[in-house]
Amino acid sequence: MDYESTDLDVPFLAAYWAHTARTLISRIRDYESLLTGASAGTHPLTVADSWQWTADSHFALLSIAHVVKACDLAADLPRFPDAELLVLLRNFAEHWEEPNGRSGRALARVRLDKMTNGIIFIDEWDYLSGVDSIDSRDLDDWLVDVERAARSLATCQDDPLPNVTQPLR
Fold first, then answer.
1. Cβ atoms 120, 32 nearer than 8 A
2. Distances (CA, A) of 165 to 76, 123, 145, 161
3. pLDDT of residue 123
């Protein structure tokens, strides 16, 4: 289905979810720097920090899956080569109560170990946890490209998107 046949504002949704995913990924990296000792002593990690990190990981995957969906609806938005894998990761995380469900079985064929956290960036090699084919820097670049393309598309449609640093009124 092409989004132009719907009432969806796909350029807005693509930009919104891409920005949200990038924000969450940045927060996840902040947690990881605390875990690896890069900021040792400045903030002792708590159970609440760990829970928030896990929630941010989950919602980062959800946001990324929404970006994939928006890109599927708008031909002018860039695709991520491993988009299907990202959606499987999101579905697996969302349906944690069914580890052997459809997404779990599909991921097992991709060679993933058990996934306990949604999205983890390892500083040394900076890949999604357990997914050697997805370099998180490529993911960052794609999210930036999607937001840029969505803004351009919205401007071409005489419906420019707001600047994210613009104060709310």
1. yes
2. 25, 28, 18, 12
3. 41
DSSP state of 127: B
CA–CA separation, 3 and 5 (whole Å):
5
Q: In this structure, what token pair is assigned to residue 140?
A: 């960052």
The neighbouring-strand residues paired with 128 are 121
Residue-wise pLDDT tens digits, 27-44? 888 877 777 665 556 667
Buried b (16+ CB within 10 A) or exposed e, 70-105: bbebbeebbebebbebbbbbbbbbeeeeeeeeebbe
The answer to whether residues 50 and 126 touch, using CB atoms and an 8 Å cutoff, is: no
Which residue would you say has higher pLDDT here, 111 or 164? Answer: 164
Q: Is the pTM of this model over 0.85?
A: no
> Tokens 């988009």 label which residue?
83
pLDDT tens-digit readout, 99-147? 888 887 887 777 555 444 444 444 433 445 545 557 778 899 999 999 9
* 3-class state of residue 121 by DSSP: strand
Phi, psi for residue 135 in degrees, rounded to 5: -85, 125
